[in-house]
Amino acid sequence: MATTVKKKPLAALEDRFPKLGRGPQAVLITAIAIFAVIFPLLMDPISGTLADATQYLAYVVMGLGLNIVVGFAGLLDLGYVAFYAVGAYCSGWLMSSFYADANIHILVTGTAAQAPGVHVNFLLVLVIAAMLCAVAGVIIGLPTLRLRGDYIAIVTLAFGEIVHVFAVNGDGIHPFGVGYPLTKGRDGISPIDQIKLPGLSQFNSYLNLRPYYWTILAIAAIAIFISLRLRDSRLGRAWIAIREDEVAAASMGIPLVKTKLQAYAIGAALGGVSGAFLGPYLQIVNADSFAFSFSIFVIATIILGGLGSVWGVVLGSILLSYINYTLIPDQLNSVPHKIGLDFNLADVSIGIFGVLLLFVMLIRPEGLLPERRRKIELTEGIGAAETSFEVST
Amino acid sequence: MALQDAQVDPPAAAPLGARPGDAIRNFISGYGLFAVLLALPVYYGISDLKNDGNLAHLGQNIFQGLSNGAIWALIAVGYTLVYGIIELINFAHGDVFMIGSFTASALFGTLGLTLVSSTGSIVFGLILTLVLCMLICGLLNVMIERVAYRPLRNAPKLAPLITAVGLSFILQNVGLLWQGGSPRSVDDLIHAQQDVFTFLGITVQRADVLAIVVTIPLVIAATTFINRSRLGKAMRATAQDPDAARLMGINVDVTISLTFLIGGMLAGAAGLIYALYQTTVQFNQGFQAGLIAFTAAVMGGIGNLRGAVLGGLIIGIIQFISDDRIGTQWTPAIVFAYLILIMIFRPQGLLGEETREAG
């Protein structure tokens, strides 16, 4: 394989734009942050754009979680949907009348306090979901400790599929006794309690989406903050060391088992938090949403954004969610009719998504906003001779 | 022979003195896997003996599993070849198999093969279909490599994984537009369910005969080609060390294309067998088949041809036992649970050498 690294077409374009310094970068981020906060006030409280934005932010949180596992620690996880499922089911179990025989109310007010079933305060559910997912992450991580590379991918994929099968068939399992099935299968647990948080107007996923948006925005901001701080911490450096060379990292005294499991646990917890938010937001926890294709979607968002790059992942998640959930199915759907072709774009939407993934990767395999460290490795060709076949992720 | 058999890997970190748990650990890694693999058949064998007094039911499960596993084996060989040579999980491979099924069902129409055709014309037509399916899928796979993987050979390792997923989506969409979204039935040309003979209480159906008669020669041909021919030697050399292979005058690009051609051809054959065996085809059949076949390849030891075949057959058996005794809806979970157990007990797979990846 050629040892010279060809300059990518976009790199030339990049050189023409001066890199932003630290100051202007901060200004840019602040401006975007302010816009993100006031954005719902410019919208109708039930507008579709606001609904989409809320959903995208939930995917950003998941992308950030997966980025810790794949981007920082270099453990290719193809079963991330498992944590979305566990998180979402936490809200399904603890915030609905699904277990109508039980009568548990913890820190809830209003209609939720009157209804039968288990009703727990949303913040508590978030904590429970994060903890449960962290445990699940460690359980999934344990068998992969001896493995590397694609073997990790296949084991995590297997776990993801097992969780999916349990979600679909869970209506036949009664782990907590008769009348308490594990899930409601393809019918889905619905409705879920609306979130209630002090200081925000009434949450209502049919009439007022603004509080939902602000909640997930806050969660996403916290996830970004956690990601940035972790990246620069001792733990983050240990992850990156493992990613670059596991043997060298171990010989430098990094405890591999502990460090890897921490990555799985933290990454999984973020996925769980996002899932626990999507439950009440979408008002349904349906087994069909936990398919393997969702894991692929999340991994695509972070590779598109730039593995390991926090801002890249944010950008990639928003962009890909927009394309996959809004642009192709909604906005472009009527285009073929307008230009006189007789088919719906929805019929070829997965194909378009595929073509897009293909081209973005061919043009820019390092992602939209690559992490600085990776970019240096790629452009200066450190070990370029062996990248062809042996680069370890 | 395995692509990686000849690969000399340094032994994974030499043990620093014997530790107390070592004996147990060695025992588990040596025999634990067999215990895991035998658990289902032995359990149901005992329950059969108790209830029926013979093992015919279990034997039937295992036999049908073998013939069904033959399809997975053919697909798994494609995965393992590609992984062995460029270390890429070719996510599009399952969809190449799906295109093979669709091509077969379309060709039946084109060739005018229907249930009323004479036996001679059906046999001739099926052979022709098989050849065409294999050619089309082989060329499709070569094209996929050329478009989606070759430009990324120097890119980060995850980039081709995403293009593979992209191509998988594209092929699924092609299938969706071609034959529609719902399952489509294929003429039962060979009367798949018809019994051929019964042996020791095991009924052999025509579909089983077809799967075995097509798979065995193909696998033998592929193995012989890779072991004996000059091009096969080039493939093994490229799998071991592409740069050194290039220095020895091997055209690495052609060799990789050849690998994809062989993998695609086997997937095409699997597609034809599947169409006749199941008598329905669907645009998303390739996805599940791809996952199962990749599991089979990993189970056997990825990069190892015989391992892939063995893994395919084992998964076929597990599937049938589980379908019959536990319930179809749980089968994927059971298959993947087996995969995880195998990864715990023997990460290098059943026949795999200890590699860097799985060390």
From TrEMBL, chain A:
Question: What domain of life?
Answer: Bacteria
| Pfam families hit by this protein | BPD_transp_2 (PF02653)
Q: Give the record's keywords alphabetically.
A: Cell membrane, Membrane, Transmembrane, Transmembrane helix
| InterPro entries listed in its UniProt record | ABC_transp_permease, LivM-like
This protein's membrane topology, according to the annotation, is:
Multi-pass membrane protein
The principal location of this protein is membrane
* Transmembrane annotation, as ranges: 26-43, 55-76, 81-100, 120-142, 149-167, 212-230, 261-284, 290-323, 343-363
Q: Name the CDD domains for this protein.
A: TM_PBP1_LivM_like
Cell compartments where the protein resides: Cell membrane
Q: Do the record's keywords include Cell membrane? A: yes
Lipid biosynthesis: present as a keyword of the record?
A: no
Concerning PANTHER family, the annotation shows: HIGH-AFFINITY BRANCHED-CHAIN AMINO ACID TRANSPORT PROTEIN BRAE, HIGH-AFFINITY BRANCHED-CHAIN AMINO ACID TRANSPORT SYSTEM PERMEASE
The name on file for this protein is Branched-chain amino acid ABC transporter permease
Species of origin: Paraconexibacter antarcticus
The taxonomic lineage of its organism, from the top, reads: Bacteria, Bacillati, Actinomycetota, Thermoleophilia, Solirubrobacterales
Automatic annotation (TrEMBL), chain B:
Any idea where this protein resides?
Cell membrane
Membrane topology qualifier: Multi-pass membrane protein
Query: Which keywords label this protein?
Result: Amino-acid transport, Cell inner membrane, Cell membrane, Membrane, Transmembrane, Transmembrane helix, Transport
Q: Does the keyword DNA repair apply?
A: no
Q: Which residues cross the membrane?
A: 28-46, 66-89, 96-116, 122-144, 156-178, 209-226, 256-277, 289-318, 330-347
Question: Pfam families in the record, alphabetically?
Answer: BPD_transp_2
Kindly indicate whether the keyword Membrane belongs to this entry. Answer: yes
Chief subcellular site?
membrane
Which protein family is it in? Belongs to the binding-protein-dependent transport system permease family. LivHM subfamily.
- For this entry, the protein name equals Branched-chain amino acid ABC transporter permease
